[in-house]
Request: fold
Amino acid sequence: MSELSDKVFDAILMARQRVYAVASPTPLEEIVGDDLSFRLFVKREDLGPIKAYKWRGAYNRMALLSPEERRRGIIAASAGNHAQGVALAAKILGIPAKIYMPRSTPEVKQSAVRRFGGDFVEIVLHGEAYDAAGAAAKEDAAKNGLTFVHPYDDVAVMGGQGTLADEVVMSGKGSFDVAFLQIGGGGLASGAAVWLKRQFPKIKLIGVEGVGQACMKAAIEAGTPVDIGRSDLFCDGTAVRKAGALTFEICREFLDDIVTVTNEDVCWAIQKLWETNRIIPETSGAMGVAAALKHAASLAGQKVLTVISGANVDFGQLGFITRNSQVNGAFRRYLRMRIPERPGAFMGVLAKAFSNSSITEFQYGKTSPTIACPIVGVAVSDEQFREIAQALTAEKISWEEVTGDADTLFRVIPFERSLLKNPLFICLDFYERPGALRDFLGRYIGAGDNICYFNYLYTGERVGRAMLGIEFADSASREAFLGKISGTLGDGVRACSVIRGNVAARLCGE
Reply:
């Protein structure tokens, strides 16, 4: 081992007496799922005093300050969890702390900083990401002779973070074959790697980064820390553009590999943790689990360690997480088709190409008198997706995958009101089950009726909701349809509201 790693190891030993004066060890919990081919253990740092591991390093570093340094106060920079750790330590130790945070920091984390630090902390919002806030904080510290408490690139900070690995060893649930350690700047991975490798010499240590955040992977490939230019902010706790100089040396020495995960992988991991153990971590907190699930095929029969590094999720993120998780074990994919704009065309496509598919979304509005381009979202395996594509091709239906398109993501559903003839818009409630909407459409949409608008999104609730626009040959046909759908329509389908009259004008806000 290098001189630096020996220093980190010694720092972990010394940190024990400090961190355990503040909080008890967090649990090491097994995730049990019928579909897991390996044993998966998670270190529950989401149950710590700030719902994240960062307090360990912050407190350990600040406890080492001299009386004069404490009197002057400290400066820190953080996207959220390190700030909370600094705030907690500031209040316990009675140290004034000025904390620079990116303007993009979720309000839940800003509020937590104020709650933990009370009158001992001052928040300064600066820049859009950690790097800008960090640069401003260092400049302030140098100008005013204050101590800068780094979120990761400090031996004492790494020593504090490494105490969670000490708890893993002391749990008696080891040893482990593989550990997946998420990386932002590298403090967690460095501290844990030094300790785990000393205690479990045969363990394989894998660093985990977001696809748009892979600063440590870039550093190792370049042989030195490099600025990656931009860091994806979805996993905001690990959104770092440049790895630390010290953490780079440790990670290069100890990590066997670095893998990347997508935002969708992280959403699936959060879903899995909720479905198995009722855990909802923040996005960066689930990255280790995301990597383990992504590489499950190579982990069969092994004992795997991960860290749930935080649970300070912004409530507003949950909608995006849900939409980008899995349905029935498959990710959502979207197709835009080009079919004739005529009665029965859409229903015919559903019957011929999607009869065995789990449909999660419809997006369609009439914009042409001759061509319709509906978007259908499906949760299917790769093989099932190929079957849909083959069925569409066999029917000579032009299609394209639009899973990543902006208009699909933001659910842009335009329609041309001048094209609608005798329209009726209805909002449906129905028990959410495969085929419920298809059954309704097949039963109530007549041969001369035409779907001109369709807005449906699977949300995971027992009750599904859809807004459906139908145009009719004449007003009499429309009134006859209204008679058919009054009340409950069977199989739990209910028309909960009906928009009549100049429908298109009303929906356009005129």
The two ends are 73 Å apart (CA to CA). Confidence is low (pLDDT under 50) at residues 501-510. The first strand starts at residue 28 and ends at 31. The CA atoms of residues 282 and 312 lie 5 Å apart.
